[in-house]
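Reading a protein record of the kind used here takes little practice once its layout is understood. An example of such a record is reproduced below.
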Amino acid sequence: MFSHGTGGFVIRKKSRAQVKSAKKKRSVHDANRLFLRQMNVVLNRKLKSMRKHMEVQQLELNQQWLKMMQVGSIPTREVPKVIYKELNVLLITPCNDREMSSHCVLIEQSLKHLVRNVNEIKYIESVSACLSSYDVDLIMVIGSEENLTDENIAALRTSTVKKVIWLSADQHGNQSETILSIFDHVFTQHSAQISDDQHHMGSTVSHELLMPPDPHIFCPQAVPLEYESDVYIIGDAEPDGMVTAIAKSGLLDNKKVRVDGKGWAQIGDFNPVHTNEARQMLYNGSKLVIHSAESIKNVMEIAACGTFQLIGPSVNQSNGIDLSNFQQYNSCEELTQKFEHYWQSVDARRLAASHALAYMKYNQSHLQKTLRLLDIIFI
């Protein structure tokens, strides 16, 4: 620091340490800006890639739809005994069942496309008041762990209107036979939901009709890196199982593998899937799923996410699901061959996944399932 001239101004000269500190701050700032710029470039590139993939997938969906129309994959329907557009439907839905709320909305929307009028009420609202105020041709109850009120049960029992209930996936058939026997038709997610005795409830007829996956949850979407994997295995590690043999063969070496089942800790260094993890995120983050469990529900959810899967022989056969739309294996040799083929060919894997997604979108939608329900009732 020194004085200069007579004006009283004081010029403070910066020390070397101060100059060095300022340069260091600038260099750190520049480095941060460069890092952010590079990250933006990477993220933009990945976003463009995702958009391109979604465009290609949508194009493949449209092509698969046209192909299904040409080859007659969409089944022809018998002519119903009634005109659906003349029907008035009373739809009774649960009040606080979050898992079923989206399904209820989609079923109501589907009915509005199919019938003349839909009057939707909650479990706690008066059924008898609706029946006395509106012309009703069909009463449809969406099942839930919630209970109908005693007054509504009594009103349903005395009503002569045709009645159906569509049980939810988590709803057990432990309801008394007197409750289920109120309905002319009971629709279940799987045949095990109701007992053998309940299958024969006088005039009540039971049917297996799977609800589609919630399209707002199980759909193609980009996921963060922590959800990504190369292979996702669903099913237990059976000692003589086909998937266990694959795991021991070395085909899964140097791959990130998630396992959703028991016994895998003794087989290899795999990543276990926990109960609270979002399955839709894990499905979307996986390149290939090997499904050796029994649940057809999981098969539908994976397909709805647009993820490729290989399905084993233990998957439950369902009357409403055509498994020929999925890639299946029935032996260890066939699993090995298909795994190697689809792992190496990204295009083949994507095409097969798009075909399954198209099948779910056009043949297993809430609209198609609701139409199927009406056909079962009225044809």
User: Anything to note?
Assistant: The mean pLDDT is 86.
